[in-house]
Amino acid sequence: MLIDTSVSSANLLGFISLLTYILTLLPSSIRIVFPQIKKAKITMNLLKYRRQLGILAFIFALIHAGLIIVKRNVDLFDLQTYKISLEGTVTLIMFAILAVTSNDWSIKKMKKHWRKLHKSTYVCMFLILWHIKEKMYGHWNIITLIEIILMTVTIVLFFRRRWLEHYK
Ligand code: HEM
User: Fold this and answer.
1) Tell me: the pLDDT tens digits for 36-80?
2) What does the alpha-carbon distance between residue 135 and residue 32 come to, in Å, rounded to a whole number?
């Protein structure tokens, strides 16, 4: 397969959104899978700014989708549009809900439901992997390869963490 080295700004924003999203997931996995670095400054900072990173991931994804909509003249009033990018649309809606509820007020109001809601962030890992495979099929570029590797490593870390939580 030939890999393109040029990347459009829309795609680059999708990539930046994915990177930011991965940073929100890392601290919980590191805490269990690599306990020796759980107190490292970088891990502590990722944990501290997790909510802000989640909001940024949503903003980047929104601009990514916006640029694609403009560039491809997508008709937002055509239901077919949402069917074609079902996984992207669902992820974007989930990112929006998580971003809007990433504040102390929501934690207080939603109580135990907040944790349940925010656990749905893990579903987005699979949706994004599906999104990349589906949308980039047959025309991978250099960042697509990095995205697939990073998403796969993130998912493996997630399963390793769940396994350790269960059996240790
Ligand atoms: C949280 C939501 C989203 C994330 C994190 C995301 C992320 C990405 C990423 C990482 C890529 C691959 C870029 C590359 O390898 O060059 C991509 C491609 C793409 N995304 Fe999204 N995306 C999201 C939502 C959406 C939505 C809502 C749409 C619909 C407008 C969309 C449309 C596309 C399209 C059409 C491509 C393929 C671009 C191409 O053919 O070069 N994405 N997205």
Assistant:
1) 999 999 999 999 999 999 999 999 999 999 999 999 998 999 998
2) 33
Between the CA of 133 and the centroid of ligand 1 the distance, in Å, is 10
Alpha carbons 81 and 134: distance in angstroms, whole number: 15
Is the shortest distance between the CB of 136 and ligand 1 below 6 Å? Answer: yes
Of 69, 120, 132, which is best to mutate to test ligand 1, by the most ligand atoms within 8 angstroms of its C-beta? Answer: 132
Residue nearest to atom 35 of ligand 1 (CA): 135
Predicted confidence (pLDDT) per residue in 102-125, tens digit: 999 999 999 999 999 999 999 999
Q: Is the CA virtual torsion 110, 114, 120, 125 positive or negative? A: positive
- Residue 159's φ and ψ, nearest 5 degrees, are -70, -35
Ligand 1 touching residue 14 (CB < 6 A): yes
Give the model's confidence band at 1: pLDDT under 50 very low, under 70 low, under 90 confident, else very high.
low
30 C-alpha to ligand 1 centroid (Å): 27
Which ligand 1 atom sits closest to the C-alpha of 18? 5
Domain regions of the chain by residue span: 9-167
